[in-house]
């Protein structure tokens, strides 16, 4: 395996080479032992894809070979659509999140984000939704734009700017000397008017959508999960109406009731984390097509890397509660998207999320559909990505073996093409 982009783009070459790299190869035929149509679960043997420029032209067992087409034989692998991570933090890396905000400059964090974007792409994630820069303002827009212009390698990005929270709420800088003006990881909004003003600033700064923290510090007592809500339904409605006015939407961090219910009633597009949803909330999510994004990997990582044994026990208990609730959510028909919350754990390792969703009761094909089909819808790109179809962007990966038989193969992506450009082969 060689990392094509790394060798070429990060060697000692001039800026003109970036532009050259961003030019997709003209005509390519990808050939592999198998091709998976995630929408139907059909495996074609062998599988071929004809790519012209940045788009897919033909998909099948044997596609046309126009004059000058380069045929790439990927051997005993399975071609499938590029993976989508609907919950990432490019600006975070393992270690204390609050301290990253306080200690690291935005230029430094932006370089870290660029390197995270590359790691995610190389792991097969060709599209992502960034759920907050955690104190780095609108710097995610610059990363997204640099990727789009071919300056740096990375997934297609939908970015939220800095997430919004109440004073003293989730992701605020709590526990410091109040006399010190310590930066919060979130942008403050304490009323409906505040939300509208902050949303206008975020969208002016280049955000594609808005992320709001709807629930605060989680706790459990006597095995019961508790989390306070942060905004009322009416406040969230004001936020959503402002985003709708500007042609976009709101996604929330919401771990449990009543906040999850308030967010769904107001009409958010996704409830991220969703440890606990009432029957009424689950029913409403099914009817309104609101996605739950479970983010299991982060809890597992926090349990495995807890600084105290009590911390590890707490995280494992939370994961166990969430896994049981997830089964209820599946039974209730809650639409699912796949989001890992990568950043606090290492970028490029987040295909573990698909494995955990299977482990907690979802069929492998359903997980793949949640990832690429629902993920594409949630990102607003379902007419262009998430499927191997003529006219779609050539966002294609290859994995060893069949992911419907062993979802773990998504952790060993061998080939990555995004928009017709090969990044890993
Ligand atoms: Zn997150």
UniProtKB/TrEMBL annotation:
GO molecular function: hydrolase activity, acting on carbon-nitrogen (but not peptide) bonds
Superkingdom of the organism of origin: Bacteria
Matching InterPro entries: Amidohydro-rel, Metal-dep_hydrolase_composite, Metal_Hydrolase, Metallo-dep_Hydrolase, OTAase-like
Pfam families xref list: Amidohydro_1 (PF01979)
Position of the signal peptide: 1-21
Coiled-coil boundaries: none
Span of domain Amidohydrolase-related: 78-421
Keywords: Hydrolase, Signal
CDD domains xref list: Met_dep_hydrolase_A
Classification via Gene3D superfamilies: Metal-dependent hydrolases, Urease, subunit C, domain 1
Xref: PANTHER family: ALPHA-D-RIBOSE 1-METHYLPHOSPHONATE 5-TRIPHOSPHATE DIPHOSPHATASE
UniProt name for this protein: Imidazolonepropionase-like amidohydrolase
Species of the source: Granulicella aggregans
Higher taxonomy: Bacteria, Pseudomonadati, Acidobacteriota, Terriglobia, Terriglobales
């Amino acid at each position: 395996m060689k990392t094509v982009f790394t060798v070429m783009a990060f060697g000692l070459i001039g800026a003109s080479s970036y532009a050259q790299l961003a030019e997709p190869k003209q005509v390519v035929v990808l050939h592999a032992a198998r091709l998976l149509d995630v929408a139907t679960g059909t495996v074609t043997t062998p599988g071929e894809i004809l790519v012209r420029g940045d788009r897919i032209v033909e998909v099948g067992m044997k596609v046309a070979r126009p004059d000058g087409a380069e045929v790439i034989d990927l051997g005993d692998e399975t071609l499938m659509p590029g993976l989508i991570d609907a919950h990432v933090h490019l600006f975070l890396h393992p270690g204390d999140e609050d301290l990253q905000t306080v200690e690291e400059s935005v230029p430094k964090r932006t370089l870290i984000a660029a390197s995270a974007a590359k790691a995610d792409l190389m792991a097969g994630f060709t599209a992502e939704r960034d759920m907050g820069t955690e104190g780095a303002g609108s710097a995610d827009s610059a990363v997204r734009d640099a990727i789009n212009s071919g300056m740096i390698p990375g997934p297609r990005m939908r970015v939220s700017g800095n997430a919004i929270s109440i004073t003293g709420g989730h992701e605020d800088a709590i526990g410091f000397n109040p006399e010190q003006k310590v930066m919060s990881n979130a942008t403050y909004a304490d009323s409906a008017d505040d939300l509208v003003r902050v949303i206008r600033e975020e969208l002016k700064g280049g955000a594609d959508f808005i992320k709001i923290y709807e629930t605060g510090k989680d706790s459990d007592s006597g095995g019961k999960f508790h989390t306070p809500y942060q905004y009322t339904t009416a406040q969230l409605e004001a936020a959503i109406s402002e985003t709708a006015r500007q042609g976009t939407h709101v996604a929330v961090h919401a771990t449990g009731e009543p906040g999850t219910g308030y967010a769904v009633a107001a009409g958010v597009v996704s409830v991220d984390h969703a440890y606990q949803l009432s029957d009424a909330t689950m029913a409403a999510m099914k009817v309104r097509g609101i996605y739950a994004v479970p983010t299991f990997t982060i809890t597992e990582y926090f349990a495995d890397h807890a600084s105290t044994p009590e911390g590890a026990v707490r995280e494992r208990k939370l994961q166990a509660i969430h896994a049981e609730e997830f089964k209820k959510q599946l039974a209730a028909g809650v639409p699912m998207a796949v989001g890992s919350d990568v950043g606090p754990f290492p970028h490029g390792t987040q295909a573990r999320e698909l494995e955990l969703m299977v482990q907690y009761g979802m069929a492998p094909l359903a997980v793949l559909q949640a990832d690429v089909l629902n993920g594409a819808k949630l990102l607003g790109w379902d007419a262009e990505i998430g499927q191997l179809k003529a006219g779609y962007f050539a966002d294609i990966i290859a994995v060893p073996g069949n992911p419907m038989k062993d979802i773990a193969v998504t952790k060993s992506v061998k080939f990555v093409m995004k928009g017709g450009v090969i990044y890993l082969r």
